[in-house]
Batch of 2 targets.
Target 1
Amino acid sequence: MKTDVVVIGAGVIGGAIALELAKAGRSVVIVDKGSAAGAGSTSASSAIIRFSYSTHDAVLMAWESASIWENWADYLGAIDPDGMARFIRTGYLVYRTAGYDGESVRVIWDDLKIPYEILNADQLRKKFPALDANSYWPPKRIDDPAFGDDAVGELSGLYDPLSGFMDDPMLAAHNLINAAKVLGAQTRFREEVVAIDKESSRVTGVTLASGERIESAIVVNAAGPHASKINKIAGVLDEMNIRHRPLRQEVYVAPAPNGFKLEDNVPVVADLDTGIYFRPHLGGTINLGGTEPACDELHWIDDADDWREETTVEIWETMMLRLARRMPDFGVPVSPSGIGALYDATDDWVPIYDRSSIDGYFMACGTSGNQFKNAPMAETFIRLLIEAAEAGRNHDTDPISYIGPRSGRAINVGAFSRLREVQNTSGTVMG
Ligand SMILES: Cc1cc2nc3c(=O)[nH]c(=O)nc-3n(C[C@H](O)[C@H](O)[C@H](O)COP(=O)(O)OP(=O)(O)OC[C@H]3O[C@@H](n4cnc5c(N)ncnc54)[C@H](O)[C@@H]3O)c2cc1C
């Protein structure tokens, strides 16, 4: 089999790249060892669409991507007969606490004219009565005797009214793959890439576990938590200045109390004061995950094919009781409902969208638990990187940039280089 491009991975990132390259008139084959689009880490995503990152390029990328989620059907250009994912606008509240003042984000929002309000504790209580506006800093585990200590002060918050979430991340990936297929892309599910084929320093295709070869002058690694494995077999790990590796996480669903249901106009909340993020979800529920506070152990995984999918009682209890501190009417459920999942986390929690030293081999990886929202820009960056390489431009020494249509500002694609120095970020999923 011969094609212009092989995309490894049919998650939200691979799906978006496949669509963009199919729109550009290239023949695309998407290979995924799973059985369906978005069935990898995308299926576990909280799918929050926000614009709060520590660096200018990351905020711009999210701001530009958000307008695509809001106009999803137009962007796809095809209605998926299996249903369409929807953007649900809720707004986004990030508490300002002792360990996180949100200033770097606020300065960038001012510069980009992204609308927001600063709310003091009284304003927070009035606007979101279901939420306690006290500070319990620092975040603690439940085995810490200080877990239930009294508040140490009050919080303020940054609130942006335009953020939200996509109601079904796996369906969003399905929508992308469907739209790519309408334009002629082909899918190969239940097929595993086991080798990246090369001749001298140029990629020539991939070999599948079945022994079949797919010939292609362009291969894009969008294998999510398996991406470092693919980079290893491609032989490009040593040239990278930024590491990326699987990090196990747990996310939960719990019944929402009255006052924090979707219809109550409540926001997505980043609560670095207690170490959780949460958002309202359909069906009267809340989605909840952690923000990697210093007290929580990080569970790095050696092999993305060998890890525990079941949740852990201690982590679940900690998360639920943290939520109960922030939301006094929350009734802790009697048993956990959640899943284990993997991030592909980099050293600085900034993703990698880049070329490599192998001509024709590109990577869209290191998505660090925060790149669902950026899939619509990741695909543009990969297309531009491919076009730049074909035009003989060396992005490593002469980085490309992209002018966002919403902001009119240039995003430096070099900010996502595998060769970058570790960036000064929050060092967590907040990016
Ligand atoms: C619990 C959780 C919550 C998150 N919440 C948010 C959020 O609120 N907002 C946000 O913006 N981001 C969030 N993220 C991050 C975001 O969801 C991910 O960055 C994104 O879904 C990654 O997509 P992907 O396509 O790169 O990877 P995946 O969806 O994992 O897709 C990779 C695919 O590659 C395939 N594959 C792997 N190896 C091979 C191989 N050798 N051959 C063939 N196929 C292979 C896999 O089967 C898989 O389907 C979250 C992530 C997690 C895990």
Target 2
Amino acid sequence: MIDVHAHLEQMDFDNDRYQVIEGCKQKLKAVITCCAHPEDFDLTMQMVEKHKGFVFATVGIHPIYIKEITEKEKDEFLDLIKENKDKITALGEQGLDYFEIKESEWQQKQKELFIEFIDLSKELNFPLVVHSRDAFEDAIRILEQEDAKQVLMHMFGAHHLLKRVIENNWFISLNTIILRSKKHKKIARDMPSEKILTETDSPWLDPAGGRNTPLNVKIVIEKISEIKKVTFEEMDKITTNNAIKFFNLKI
Ligand SMILES: [Zn+2]
């Protein structure tokens, strides 16, 4: 089992981060932690160093932070990413969020930043983790326009656009939302297993309403195997291999 999208730098883990990661090592093959703000970069890199071969990092600027990052901070962050590229596995979560950001001028800024990260992902040959809340159509259009190839759609909820994701040879990561969302269940049903990765988005999205941890990726795999009518072991093997291949994980 691999959790390809958690936020282990969040303060929810400040008191027991080490124990949580050690606990994950007993059950999982790897966790990819997502640094979504420049101020989380140092802690993310510390985790990667300390848990080499187990904790991997994807790095980006979450589109909901578009208003608070200055041009200068953004440029410095892009330089930091390039300087540290050997410790980074992927870029993102990058993309668009029209749920949180409603003003068109800020949505425009999100698009520009998204394109910058798509370019950087090509330059560094990194996969790109895409966030596209309430902006699925625009996100797909931009990715197509920019000819992005190594794409993982995180929290993708637009079943009517799934065909385009499949045709573009992109991947999708599913999380515990499939327990309660019909839309996401349908996506799990219709996405080829070879293109599915599993995640938790910890500390958020705990099915019991508390703090989520990467260990709950097991519940996600259980649910997908139920939907796909295959055994847990089979689905675990497929999604774990997908993650290793997609992110080129050295484990
Ligand atoms: Zn996230």
